[in-house]
Design a protein that fits this description.
Helix content: 25-40%
Oligomer: single chain
CATH superfamily of the largest domain: Class I glutamine amidotransferase (GATase) domain
Shape: elongated
Length: 766
């Protein structure tokens, strides 16, 4: 325990001598003067002496206690974190500055920063101003120290226990700018715990969290991580939550419909890219509006013959644009843009898509841009596993495998290269050269080969299996399903449907790899009739197309690669599907989207960590001057958005990544202060279940200008918290004792006591 005003305490203790002195001064001996009735009075006094002495002692004790508790209350004793050291002990302050993406929000009234920081982000500027004020309040001569941590993922300790006058503090704060990442509260909690554990017992710890505490900073579904008791013992200060209303439109995703395409666009249809947008803010801000978006496309060469730097880019294609019309109250929207792709002779390239929102008054421009990478290959090699026509003894116009071949390559020139593979010739060497695998005669696959096929699919290569057209008994399911890790049951005997059944497409959002056909799938499926099919009941395998009976026509499952099973054989004896317009797009989409789904993602969210490829020495952001040194086999955090290249010792590129702003952390909706106080409960001793407005939610030192309707006092982090002081109970106790002393002094004075009985007793003795 310590005292905020030790001088008042000393004066209070000294004042206790006053009633003691008065007590003894009034008890000084006087010279007695005998008179006639003296004998009777002396006898009465002797009988009451002990009671009178006890009353006087109690009165003296009460008066001393009144002065004692009054002195203690005015001296303001401090408990809890404040009692860890005296009020004059050196202080350690940890400042956590929110520099996450929402800190780039611009209010209506922008002001310049007194510390000279040119951040272009007023929300962050407010936090920097508060940090400067806290640092200026410290006393370097007393030994005060300050540490600064940033909150954006990954949370980082910038300055560790520096003196307030250190020039590094100002330099760090001046160069601080908003990141593109979300807040990293778990890492910040770990930093705070490490900081509090390293402090000496003689120092006063204080923790300040500087943030706007908008909805993006305080996600409702993620409670604040708990900290150690040492951290909770530190006095907690926080900036008052922002109260200004703001609306924001964020570009949530940019997804190429095909993540893998070929370098020669023989169809001339170009590439389709789906853009998803989200509106956040108060309900009254989600009115009717129009948002314009634009998509740029450029190729980035990655062949050995290409330049080692990004200067090998081909000319950028003309941008595609669209306008999104928002209805009142609408919060999400999506649009698909088509952009041209330049043909190239390179065997492997990647195309860079750069989407942006065109707006002049967006108050959070950080989430208005987004990047996506798609791979382009010279060809896609598709293995077709089936026996030769002569071995089958097929005498029809088109053999089952030929239907698949026609669907994969309907034109003379195709970017899909079909490789015929005999079932007996399947081997890891043959499979490694294939981008996709289609098995038309699964009954002919030997049991051990299914494990090799499963290994091929585990590398992200799509696998399409059809029912075997050579027999109505499907013996392959017993070996194939366990090898592929598919759980469920299959009827080995094909089911005949009389009359033939029609098809029923799934809902658009459940089409999976057939999503591109959503607009026309119903019309394409209408004329198809199924006379025979294989019954499958697989777990976690959705069916984008089913029969009218509810049995699946196509089941898909996405593990490391896409596995699709067509429950009918490509034969007119099973159905008329091969001769219908649906068959070509069905097979094409299953193969192409399967290849795209198996392509490794090279898109990350700012703040995430990646493991660079072996041999990488540096990660360089091609859109800025930022570079990160890479240690062997160590993950690296991508801290800002842009195009990043992993370079070896000779500055040759090994891999390319795109980092995008974290659009999940851009909701600008303000949060009431009571909710923020309860959310911060794990970092202090606040009761999170306390009702709003109670003292339990007021145990945080709120910094800066807050809500003008809030009449609670504003304090600084240097002041003592109400819950750490015990002054008001002491003052109340002193008042109670004073009232009791007044009453007891009245009683002990014997004023108004009836003296008649004493007089009668004296007369009787006379």
């Amino acid at each position: 325990m310590s005292f905020l005003h030790p001088a008042i305490l000393a004066a209070g203790f000294a004042s206790m001598a006053l009633p003691i002195a008065i007590h003894f001064l009034f008890r000084r001996r006087r010279r007695p003067i005998p008179w006639a009735a003296m004998r009777f009075l002396q006898e009465a006094v002797r009988k009451q002496r002990h009671r009178l002495q006890l009353e006087q002692f109690l009165l003296l004790t009460l008066r001393c206690l009144i002065l004692l508790f009054l002195a203690l209350g005015l001296a303001r004793p401090l408990f809890g974190a404040a009692s860890a050291a005296s009020a004059t002990a050196p202080r350690d302050l940890l400042i956590v500055i929110d520099n996450s993406i929402i800190s780039a929000l611009r209010p209506n009234d922008t002001t310049s920063s007194p510390i000279g920081a040119s951040t272009g982000a007023p929300e962050l500027q407010r936090s920097l101003d508060e940090a400067a004020a806290l640092i200026d309040a410290l006393d370097p001569a007393r030994g005060d120290r300050v540490s600064i941590a940033t909150l954006a993922r990954p949370a980082t300790l910038l300055i560790d226990r520096a003196t307030p006058a250190a020039t590094a503090l100002r330099a760090a704060m001046t160069q601080l700018s908003p990141a593109d990442a979300a807040p990293d509260w778990p890492a910040a909690a770990a930093l705070a715990d490490a900081w509090s554990a390293s402090l000496e017992d003689t120092r006063r710890p204080s923790l300040a969290v500087l943030s706007s505490f908008r909805a993006a900073v305080r996600p409702a579904q993620s409670p604040l991580p708990a900290v150690s008791q040492a951290t909770r013992d530190a006095r907690l200060a926080a900036t008052r939550p922002a109260t200004t209303q703001a609306a924001n439109v964020a570009l949530v995703s940019v997804e190429p419909v095909r993540a893998v395409a070929t370098t020669t666009d023989r169809t001339g249809l170009g590439a389709q890219v789906r853009l998803t947008l989200r509106r956040d803010g108060p309900v009254q801000a989600l009115d009717q509006a129009i948002t314009r978006v634009r998509l740029h496309t450029s190729d980035r060469l990655e062949t050995q013959a290409a330049s080692a730097t990004t200067s090998g880019q081909t000319p950028t294609q003309p941008p595609a644009q669209a306008s999104i019309v928002w209805e009142a109250g609408q919060s999400t929207a999506a649009v698909t843009l088509t952009t041209a792709l330049a043909n190239t002779t390179a065997q492997r390239t990647s195309v860079l898509y750069r989407a942006e929102i065109l707006s002049d008054d967006d108050r959070l421009p950080a989430d208005d841009r987004r990047l996506a990478l798609a791979e382009r290959r010279g060809e896609l090699r598709v293995g077709l596993v089936a026996r030769a026509r002569a071995a089958l003894g097929a005498d029809g116009p088109v053999a089952p495998a030929e239907w698949i071949e026609l669907a994969l390559s309907p034109a003379r020139e195709s970017d899909l290269t079909i490789v015929r593979v005999e079932p007996a010739e399947l081997s890891p060497a043959r499979l490694s050269a294939l981008d996709a695998l289609v098995i038309v005669e699964p009954n002919a696959i030997r049991r051990g080969a299914w494990r090799e096929i499963a290994t091929h699919a585990a590398r992200g290569r799509p696998l399409l299996i059809t029912a075997d057209p050579t027999s109505s008994v499907q013996t392959w399911t017993d070996a194939a399903l366990p090898a592929l890790g598919l759980e469920g049951a299959a009827d080995p005997e094909a089911t005949t449907h009389e009359p033939p059944l029609r098809l029923r497409p799934a809902e658009p959002d459940a089409l999976g790899p057939l999503a591109m056909l959503a607009g026309e799938l119903t019309d394409l499926a209408a004329p198809v009739s199924i006379a025979r099919s294989l019954r499958l009941d697989l777990e976690n395998a959705p069916a984008p197309l089913t029969l009218a009976s509810g049995d699946p026509l196509v089941v898909t499952t996405q593990k490391d690669g896409l596995i699709a099973i067509l429950t009918v054989a490509p034969s007119l004896e099973w159905s008329d599907l091969p001769s219908r317009p649906l068959f070509v797009p069905l097979i094409q989409e299953l193969v192409r989207q399967g290849v795209s789904a198996g392509s490794p993602s090279r898109s990350v969210i700012a703040g995430a960590t990646i493991t660079p490829p072996p041999g990488a020495a540096e990660l360089a952001n091609t859109t800025s001057a930022e570079a990160i040194t890479v240690a062997p086999d160590q993950p690296v955090a991508i801290t800002s958005s842009g195009v990043w290249e992993a370079l070896d010792d000779t500055a040759s590129p090994l891999a390319t990544y795109v980092a995008n702003p974290d659009a999940s952390a851009t909701d600008p909706t303000p949060t009431p202060r009571d909710e923020v106080a309860r959310w911060l409960a794990p970092w202090t001793d606040i009761n999170p279940d306390a009702p709003p407005g109670t003292n339990a939610t007021a145990r945080i030192d709120w910094l800066g200008a807050g809500d003008p309707t809030d009449d609670r006092a504003t304090t600084t982090a240097a002041s003592a918290r109400d819950d750490d002081r015990f002054d008001w109970p002491l003052l109340v106790l002193a008042g109670i004792l004073a009232a009791f002393e007044a009453f007891f002094a009245r009683v002990a004075s014997h004023a108004g006591r009836d003296t008649a009985p004493a007089a009668k007793a004296a007369g009787a003795r006379a």
